[in-house]
Design a protein that fits this description.
This protein is of the alpha/beta class. 42% of the residues lie in helices and 17% in strands. The chain has a single domain, classed as Spore Coat Polysaccharide Biosynthesis Protein SpsA, Chain A. Strand 7 (169-173) and strand 8 (179-185) form a beta hairpin. InterPro entries: Nucleotide-diphossugar_trans, Trfase_1_rSAM/seldom-assoc.
């Protein structure tokens, strides 16, 4: 059993404005198609992580279920306004959840998690700022991720939060050489800030250089299972296969109901 103070789960995403998101996929999908993929992947992830939406905190956690209930999800966005994000997510996420609900008690759509605008700057600056603000305001452990890795799950996030009881940093290696998830336990900016300095973002050196920076800062690190991001045209078959499998599961579920 460990003392479970407030845990933060920060999802970085972008308002799906054509031409401004998933730009590496525009040659394959077009600007509108790339923006639609951004929309689909964000909604897919937020639905999978809905267990982290409730704002419940209570003393100690000894089970994965308690850890989930004490982890607060925030959506850190760029490329839009709070109003645009609110309208999009209410129509795309909460409406579909409500339509699938069979319980009268769940007919009221769940509220969208807090929406927080990212600061200006490159990805490293934005990550560093969000983590610093999270530690200063309320969180003892923070897991941050983008919306590019559709295989991320509730158990994986819970595992990352729990590992932060023993390690300073937890990383989820992406197969392209980056990382799909980073977890940090509370520490001064002077200790973790170098994790985001001199990193060539969107290259295959991101993970290795981050590990070197952690070692230089004297930070202990543990790694999660490697997973694939959907960033480039060659990654698209993985997304299509996931969508096909998801559709098959829905059909099978309907037959069994």
């Amino acid at each position: 059993m460990f003392k479970c103070d407030r845990n933060g789960l920060l999802v970085f995403t972008r308002f799906p404005q054509p031409g401004q998101t998933k730009t590496r996929l525009i040659p394959a999908l077009g600007a509108d198609g790339a923006a639609d993929l951004q929309r689909q992947m964000t909604v897919h992830l937020l639905k999978k992580l809905m267990m982290f939406w409730p704002q419940r905190f209570s003393g100690e956690a000894s089970t994965p279920e308690q850890t989930r209930s004490q982890t607060r999800l925030q959506i850190h966005f760029s490329g839009g306004t709070v109003e645009q994000m609110q309208t999009w997510l209410e129509s795309s996420v909460t409406s579909s959840v409500t339509s699938r609900s069979c319980s009268v008690a769940q007919l009221e759509p769940p509220p969208i998690p807090p929406l927080i605008a990212q600061c200006e700057g490159d990805l490293g600056m934005r990550l560093r700022f969000a983590l610093q603000q999270g530690f200063e305001n309320e969180f003892e452990r923070i897991v941050v991720m983008g919306s590019d890795c559709p295989a991320v799950s509730e158990p994986l996030v819970t595992q990352a939060v729990n590992l932060l009881a023993h390690y300073d940093v937890v990383l989820g290696p992406a197969l392209d050489g980056g990382y799909y998830l980073m977890g940090l336990r509370k520490m001064a900016l002077s200790r973790f800030g170098t994790l985001f300095e001199n990193i060539p973002w969107s290259t295959d050196n991101v993970l290795s250089l981050t590990l070197k920076a952690a070692a230089s800062a004297g930070l202990s690190v543990d790694l999660l299972q490697p997973l694939s991001d959907i960033d480039r045209p060659e990654d698209l078959p993985m997304w299509y296969a996931l969508q096909k499998n998801s559709m098959c599961c829905k059909i099978t579920s309907g037959w069994l109901d």
